[in-house]
């Protein structure tokens, strides 16, 4: 009995000694230098998870998908038959990388880097797989047709990870009419949300609407939805009476609005529907629900004058517009007006003889007569003085009157006028007196 007890204690002591010797000879245990960094990549791209280990020595490294408990690799050997997976190492087996190409949404989750020590040690890292936005066609509105003043609700369903943000806007850049709110009309350039609700649409709301989905992962996506608003035709005639001359061409016009697009025609006052031919030319210019109708009548005759009617008709109703064509006289040719020319004759300041000599020249060139009584009275008074000097045989002194005239121009004019009257009556009397003296002598 004592021998057995002694043998047992001896065996335990030997184990202790061997363990101590083994611990003294074995290297340091492996450890993780840092946590596994989380990784993020988009669907279809490649993701890389990094595991950094100190003192790995002869131990082995394995990668495991945590949620499915799937062993992906043992050291550098990939276990599943998945060519998307690859394991590499570097820096003297210190860094271990798990590569996953062509990512799928199912690859999202936690991954474990494990070392086969006793007990086992491990670190976890998270792989986030993002998904660009996409439009869910089956849950998204298609083109819509409604009557004017109706309610409209459009939906744009988007998918993606993170959850996409949906924004509505008009393709033409105009504001979105949300409808009346109280006494005011509510309109915005952009509207956010899965639904776009419009309480009372009008013809101005017709057009293309874009829903744009984005979540920060390129590319953003959009869906184009056409809104058609139906209403009966409306016609406006800008010129209800048009005048034209015989043998000329004339254009009659009507502007109409209608949706759906109406059937249009021009009808003459005798009920004849006009068609394109050598006499008539019918044209239309359409801009969305607006249409500009024109009728060109060539080489007008007497029978062409009268009333014309533009007609538009669609499923919601019809409308007419009237234009009256009247005859006017042809325009006469207007002679070209010549530009008036003005001649300027310099005025010479000097004696009255110079002024007297200039007067005939001015009249010869059509220059107007003096525009004041003063100029005319001065010229007449100078003639009177010359006649008086010739009778008396004395020389007329023109300097003195000229000085008086410059000093008192108004009085000089009156004096010259009176002298004129005296000269008209004194000359005949003097001649009669001379004749009487000669006869009696």
Total helical elements: 5
Instruction: State the helical fraction.
Output: 10-25%
Structural class label? alpha+beta
Query: Whole-number average pLDDT?
Result: 79
Uncertain parts: 1-26, 337-425
Whole-number radius of gyration? 58 Å
Tell me the β content. Answer: 35-45%
- Strand tally is 27
- The general outline is elongated
End-to-end Cα distance, whole Å, is 220 Å
Main pleated-sheet profile = 8 strands, mixed
Oligomer: single chain
Describe what is shown at a glance:
By secondary structure, this protein is α+β, with helices and mostly antiparallel strands. The protein has helices spanning about 1-25, 350-365, 375-390, 400-405, 410-440; strands at about 30, 40, 45-55, 60-65, 70-75, 75-80, 85-90, 95-100, 110-115, 120-135, 145, 150-155, 160, 165-170, 175-180, 185-190, 190, 195-200, 205-215, 220-235, 240-245, 250-260, 265-270, 280-285, 290-295, 305-315, 315-325.
């Amino acid at each position: 009995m004592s021998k057995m007890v002694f043998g047992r204690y001896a065996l335990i002591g030997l184990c202790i000694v061997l363990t101590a010797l083994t611990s003294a000879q074995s290297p340091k245990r492996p450890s993780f230098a840092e946590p596994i960094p989380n990784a993020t990549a988009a669907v279809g791209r490649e993701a890389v998870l990094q595991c950094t280990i100190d003192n790995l020595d002869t131990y082995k490294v394995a990668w495991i998908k945590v949620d499915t408990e799937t062993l992906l690799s043992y050291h550098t050997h990939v276990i599943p038959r998945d060519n998307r997976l690859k394991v590499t190492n570097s820096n003297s087996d210190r860094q271990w990388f798990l590569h996953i190409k062509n990512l799928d949404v199912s690859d999202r989750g936690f991954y474990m880097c494990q070392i086969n020590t006793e007990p086992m040690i491990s670190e976890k890292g998270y792989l986030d797989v993002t998904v660009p936005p996409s439009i869910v066609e089956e849950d998204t509105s298609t083109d819509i047709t409604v009557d004017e003043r109706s309610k409209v609700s459009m939906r744009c369903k988007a998918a993606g990870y993170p959850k996409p943000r949906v924004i509505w806007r008009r393709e033409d850049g105009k504001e979105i009419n949300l409808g009346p709110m109280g006494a005011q009309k509510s309109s915005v350039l952009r509207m956010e949300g899965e639904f776009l609700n419009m309480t009372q649409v009008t013809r101005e709301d017709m057009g293309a609407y874009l829903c744009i989905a984005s979540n920060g992962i390129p590319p953003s996506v959009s869906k184009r939805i056409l809104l058609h608003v139906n209403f009966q035709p409306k016609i406006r005639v800008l010129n209800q009476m048009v005048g034209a001359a015989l043998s000329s061409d004339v254009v009659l016009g009507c502007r109409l609005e209608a949706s759906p697009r109406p059937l249009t025609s021009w009808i003459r006052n005798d009920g004849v529907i006009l068609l394109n031919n050598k006499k008539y030319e019918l044209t239309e210019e359409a801009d969305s629900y607006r249409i500009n109708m024109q009728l060109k009548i060539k080489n007008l005759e007497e029978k062409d004058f009268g009333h014309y009617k533009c007609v538009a008709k669609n499923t919601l109703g019809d409308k007419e517009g009237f234009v009256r064509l009247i005859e006017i006289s042809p325009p006469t040719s207007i002679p070209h007006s010549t530009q008036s020319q003005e001649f300027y004759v310099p005025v010479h300041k000097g004696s009255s003889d110079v002024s007297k000599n200039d007067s005939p020249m001015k009249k010869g060139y059509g220059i107007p007569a003096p525009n004041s009584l003063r100029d005319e009275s001065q010229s007449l008074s100078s003639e009177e003085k010359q006649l008086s000097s010739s009778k008396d045989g004395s020389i007329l002194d023109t300097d003195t009157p000229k000085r008086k005239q410059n000093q008192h121009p108004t009085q000089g004019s009156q004096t010259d006028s009176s002298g004129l009257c005296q000269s008209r009556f004194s000359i005949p009397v003097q001649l009669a007196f001379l004749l009487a003296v000669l006869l009696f002598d």
